[in-house]
Amino acid sequence: MELPERFRDEVRAWLRDNWTPGLEREEWNARLYEAGWICASWPVEYGGRGLTTLESVALAEEFARAGAPMRADWFGDTLVGPTILRWGTEEQKEFFIPKILRGEITWCQGFSEPEAGSDLASLRTRAVADGDEWVIDGHKIWTTRAQDADYVFLLARTDPDAPKHRGISYLLVPMRQNGVEVRPIEQLDGAGDFCEVFFTGARTRREWVVGGVNNGWKVAMTTLGFERGTSATTGHRRFEKELAQIIELARSTGTSGDPLVRQRLARQWSKIQIMRFNGLRTLSDTLRGTKDAAALGPLAKIWWSETHRETMDLAMDILGPDGQILTGQAAAAEWVPGYGMRHGREDYPASVLQRAFLFSPSDTIGGGTAEIQRNIVAERVLGLPRS
Q1: What is the chain's mean pLDDT, rounded?
Q2: pTM of structure
Q3: 227 tagged catalytic
Q4: Which CATH number fits domain 107-224: 1.20.120.80, 2.40.110.10, 2.60.40.1180, 2.60.40.420?
Q5: Which of 104, 260, 288, 306 is the most buried (most CB within 10 A)?
């Protein structure tokens, strides 16, 4: 396959002319849309540029190298949008896809429930047909940015008598209606971007089932595949930048000369390089059509999440007692790499590094716990008996 060097040069030139750190989000999104960079891998007939896999990789790499954000709404651009393109009806595509591209609507994901996290198929939220609508009752949790979303793509049980994986449907539901209550969950750093969402007689259109009634499990696996496979060659970059800051921190605190600290820094650097090489392997497998998602997805999730948690532990060890001193801005909204904009508390001004440390244990939980990922590898890859 031809390497997209001419295309890469085009992207670099556009970024030089258009990207400035600190540019207002609305202005930046408008420039992205006008240039066709939002969802550029989507088919031309649906508003994308029809980029090849290698062109999409080049685009992501050049944006990452410039430090420029690519997405207007990650849940819409990367998760539900491609899912609608893969499974949706023409009517669903005509209604939702242009609005996603233009940034007119925002989304959240309604999968996890208090009793259905890692065992997602045990979900209890129900949707019952009522004329031209579905009536939804249930409780979702850890729903990121639900307080700002216009729509939620959620899983609900539509056939309580079917086996648990087969009686689930994938619904598109308006958030701004009676019957939907959002309660932010305050985290350790004071941010409340995770939410609980309660559905009590909420309604959505009968035709807004993606992929057909009772086929939601298969559709959801497609969405999760998009979630875990969008940054194969760029995902390591934020960890590299973060570690570079921690190395400078070690130099400034005088701990860089400590043999144990140096050894730990070198170990984390090596693990991040392994992330990079595994990303290239994933890309090669994708281009050859040999990608083994059953193995690569869980292994990558285990590796990056546990590596990041170890790196954040190391950062706090380097700071020592100073790590207990809150050095951030009171109630400031700050961009934390990998976690987005975090809105802190007036009485708990954690720094960006401290916020990343406080949030890092959740990396091994969200998107499938490390324990569950190991079980998947053991059973589906190694062929070991079910536990």
Answers
A1: 88
A2: 0.83
A3: yes
A4: 2.40.110.10
A5: 306
